[in-house]
# Entry
Amino acid sequence: MSALTFTARQETAQRVDMSPLVCQLLKDMSVTDIAAIELQNGKRKVRVDELFEISGSDTQDILIKNSYAKLDFIAKDLDGGSMMVQGEVGAYFGMGMKSGELTAEGNVGLYAACEMKNGLLTINGNAGDFLGAALPGNKQGMKGGTVIVKGNVGQRAGDHMRRGIMLIEGCAGDYCGSRMVAGTIAVMGSTGRFLGYAMQRGTLLLWQQPQLSATFNDCGSHTLAFLPILFKSFAKFDSKFAAESAAFNRVQRYGGDMAEKGRAEVLVKL
# Structure
């Protein structure tokens, strides 16, 4: 079977809720039934076949073509299967993802991978603010899985993050790792202001020296045995991080945020 493919006819004036078009919800459905599904488009509901040309039949392998930045909630709560988006992506990409593989070829909007639980999410472009964060009013962000971003990310990446791995090949905005409870965030590019703000536990791996607040203590340089093991686990990913195991072994360690529990660490490559 070929991948179930949705090709956008044209960009809509209002935003579109794409959450019904996810692998587990479409399982065992015919193409005719899928075409009749109604998507929320602004204040009105629109049939899928009005917005997209549909081809293929494998509901566990979904491809969205000609995507644009008003398509929100793509792959919400994805639980198995594979989804790929060619083009721009709106907000809440991969929200609450439970398992499977999800890929965006272009840039994505706010709250990508927010409250993600497991699986592999790859963004080949840039990501907006609150990557892997908690939804407004909630206290638990990303809880597991792996997020790979090959471009830059906005502010508050990993806000309230509790578990999982976030690999950022580009730069990160202000408040990266803010209010982080646990997990690992690695950033090859530069980082903005207030790195690790109110961070409780967890690890930030950095390739460039950050601007740290006075509530982080310099703990000296170290050769840490767990780093080669950690980077060996990255070898399976299509990422720059897969080739870094030999280069990243000795680090400058900073402990903090002392305004919180102070059990987190920032490791900077030497």
Notes: The chain has a mean pLDDT of 95. The longest helix spans residues 226-232. Helices lie at 23-26, 31-35, 48-51, 226-232. Residues 38 and 44 are 9 Å apart (CA to CA).
